[in-house]
Amino acid sequence: MEGETTIIVKWNGNEYNIKDLQGDSTILELKAKIYEETGVKPDRQKLLNLKCKGQDAEQTISMLKIKPGFKLMMMGSREEDIAEANRIPKDVSEVINDLDVDQDIEDIEVENAEIYLAKIQKRIETYKIEVFNPPREGKKLLVLDIDYTLFDHRSVASSGIELMRPYLHEFLTRAYQHYDIVIWSATSMKWINEKMKLLAVTDNPNYKIAFHLDCLAMINVVTSKYGLVEVKPLGVIWGKYQQYSAKNTIMFDDIRRNFIMNPGSGLKIKPFKQAHLNRDKDKELLKLADYLEAIADVEDFQTLNHRKWKEYKSKRSHRKRPH
């Protein structure tokens, strides 16, 4: 590339013209110029459609064959925005978020990235939900995965019911007292419907499922830790049903990245595998039912740290013990 060139950086809904770049300008120099324009430090910048194969200080504009006017998409947050997102409100309860800082910063960046918020809005507008049982007034929301959460989908058994996680129906019956229940799996709707019938969840007389969500309700995101992945943004539900929000929603999944768009609302459940070996000793759903009951009266789930759910449950249980 000869002479000066300009690259357009799209970030946070705006476009920034990065000028005075030469063919021998490095990616590190490009990031420094982006910092001048946006306030996002180079180590916070994730350049989504820039295919770098080496170190930023070694790769040059000419090596990447970037043409003048190339539009570059960026993820990243300013330091002041990260500090504000991590600010602890003065009036929260004793149970607060103190998650791993580096991963939380990336979660914040992904959660608030304009490109992904636009994808969620598109799902809200186009994804069709078949409601089995309408939302109930005053109920919180529980969103459940299937594979390795409620069902061991990899093991072999003479019947599917043998692969069901122990205490599933007791868990759903107890949860239903305080929560509307949604099933969300990263598979097709046909598969979800069949599995729910197989497990006798669909028409169970002791609880009701509000609706199912499948892979088409998910979106693709890019993260430094996982690369390109599909995730389950709760914003799709919140955009369609105003009574649900981060204040009253909790999602269980055995894969943490599935709730990277809503890190504060997700609880990583212990995966249920090798059903024939663990069927008689797995009590995870009973423990989680206790937790759901313990937090049912919490007004704002955003004040909770679901990573420490076992500690929270034990504290509540301790207070209830007679003297």
From TrEMBL:
One of its GO terms (molecular function) is protein serine/threonine phosphatase activity. InterPro entries: FCP1_dom (IPR004274), HAD-like_sf (IPR036412), HAD-SF_hydro_IIID (IPR011943), HAD_sf (IPR023214), Ubiquitin-like_dom (IPR000626), Ubiquitin-like_domsf (IPR029071), UBLCP1 (IPR051658). SMART domains: CPDc, UBQ. Its EC number is 3.1.3.16. Coiled coil: none annotated. It is an enzyme of class 3 (hydrolase). It catalyses: O-phospho-L-seryl-[protein] + H2O = L-seryl-[protein] + phosphate; O-phospho-L-threonyl-[protein] + H2O = L-threonyl-[protein] + phosphate. GO terms for biological process: regulation of proteasome assembly. Residues 135-295 form the FCP1 homology domain. Keywords: Hydrolase, Magnesium, Metal-binding, Nucleus, Protein phosphatase. One of its GO terms (cellular component) is nucleus. Pfam families: NIF, ubiquitin. Its main location: nucleus. Its cofactor is Mg(2+). Residues 5-81 form the Ubiquitin-like domain. It is found in: Nucleus. NCBIfam families: HAD_IIID1. This is Ubiquitin-like domain-containing CTD phosphatase 1. The gene is UBLCP1.
